[in-house]
Write a structure and sequence with these properties.
The structure is a single chain. This protein has 2 domains: 250 residues, Galactose-binding domain-like (Jelly Rolls, Sandwich); 126 residues, 60s Ribosomal Protein L30, Chain: A. Helix content is 13%, strand content 24%. It has 5 helices and 20 strands.
Amino acid sequence: TTDYVKELIPSWGNPSRGTPDYFNACADSIVSVPDNFAGTLQAAEGNAYIGLILRETFDPDLRRDGVSREYIQAQLLEPLKYRQLYCITLKYALSSRSPYAVDALAVALTKTKISARDKRQIIQMPQVTNMPGHLMQNKTEWAELCGVYRARGNEKYITIGNFLNDTETNFIRLYDETADSNFVYAYYYIDDVRLMPIGHEFECGCQDELSVGSDWLSENYDPKTGFNTLGFGDRNGDDHLADNYNDDNSDANNKNSDGYDNNDGADDSLNSNKNGLNNGDKNSNNTGNADDTEDIDNFDINKVGIGDAFKMSRIYFEFNSAELLSPSYDQLNSLLNLLSENPRIRIEVRGHTDNIGTKAYNRKLSIARAASVYNYLIDAGIEKSRMKYRGFGNEVPIADNDSEEGRQLNRRVEVIIVEL
């Protein structure tokens, strides 16, 4: 049969007999963007996205043979390297016509190409997954699936979809005004898929525990689940993952899998952080930065590379607040001019604090301060699609927090170059 997805987007293909959809602003109204047969939503990035059925039919009395499950697959530009840590992210949204939301969406990385003979569930152990119980109900805006993966080596393919059966896939019936009872799917849009090597998990910037990755060298890696779920508090996500991705769904029992040994290298140490990131802190109006990070004022487009970090040493906030003070505007306007003069640059604003106060409070404050810089740039005319922001609280220090000097260095805002 013809793989229409591969015809439209040559880098991607359909690993099963399901029928994923490709939506593009240049297409007719049925498969256009933002309006299409499944609902209405602008693209998260660019002018196109994919649509997947993650579960079909929810009434046991209506179950029948041939129920569809859809996936999308691509070959990576190069095989993953053994022990290298990778960041995997994608954007997802529930289509507005969908009357059901589910909690099962995941990313699998394999050495060999997955190929299924029918359009039912593909049994494969993924490396990044939405947390069981987190029902993905967002219809009007995109959410992010985010996780890190420590490569076993030579993984060549990425596959996206729901790898759990219907019993393991939790759902909720929706009664909002856009839900269509005749649209019998949990149908999700997928956009902006990214996979990139990193030196430390915090470079990935996953901000919550709504999705989880698999780093078998991490202290919070749980061999029982195959994911980094230790220390997740009272969510009980690790128990659900252990139940869902059990031995029947493991690599060793899957004909499409690579037979990984989850204990491989478990006694090795983590990679060290490559560079410090940034944000303001509650105990000082000045964010302060490490000396080995170039200041944004010295930015040179001819010397910069993707992943480079630039400190903003003259950003000031109200005490215990995310409100920008007027002396910050000079450097903010320098960043604004840089982005205006280089329209292809995409950035991420990252915020950090010292360790004074609770982790929860520091995380909240760092996110709010990074958002203040982000919103300043949006108000000045920079497009949202060119920026994102994250806050890391006190989790990524670049200096010792035992001294005021060290704490000042840890209170920082930086800009990371994401795309040139």
